[in-house]
């Protein structure tokens, strides 16, 4: 009887942590140098923003870092590099940002 209980206890000690291992949430790998991790948070409007990498380094010619954001359909888009190709001469790139109501405004040419 004691032996059966001991086997059950040992199997629980070995198997139970493996079951909970799938519940662990880790941040995605760092995309490169000059990035900082922004922890998950909720805006004052109640919008949940998942954790994401934010680029804080110097500007890169011809590229812009698009931070993670929600699309209008509610899907989360992770941060990524976008290659800039101006549509016309003297166009200026306006980086994506959150508007006054907390809604994401994607980067665009002006």
Automatic annotation (TrEMBL):
Domain of life: Bacteria
PROSITE patterns, alphabetized: PROKAR_LIPOPROTEIN
Protein name stated in the entry: YXWGXW repeat-containing protein
């Amino acid at each position: 009887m004691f032996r059966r209980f001991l086997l059950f206890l040992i199997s629980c000690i070995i198997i139970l942590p493996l079951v909970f291992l799938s519940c662990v949430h880790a941040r995605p790998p760092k995309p490169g140098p000059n990035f900082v991790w922004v922890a998950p948070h909720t805006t004052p409007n109640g919008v949940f923003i998942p954790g994401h990498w934010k680029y804080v380094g110097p500007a890169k010619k011809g590229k812009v870092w698009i931070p993670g954001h929600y699309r209008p359909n509610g899907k989360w888009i992770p941060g990524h590099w976008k290659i800039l190709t101006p549509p016309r001469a003297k166009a200026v790139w306006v980086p994506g940002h959150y508007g006054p109501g907390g809604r994401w405004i994607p980067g665009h040419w002006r």
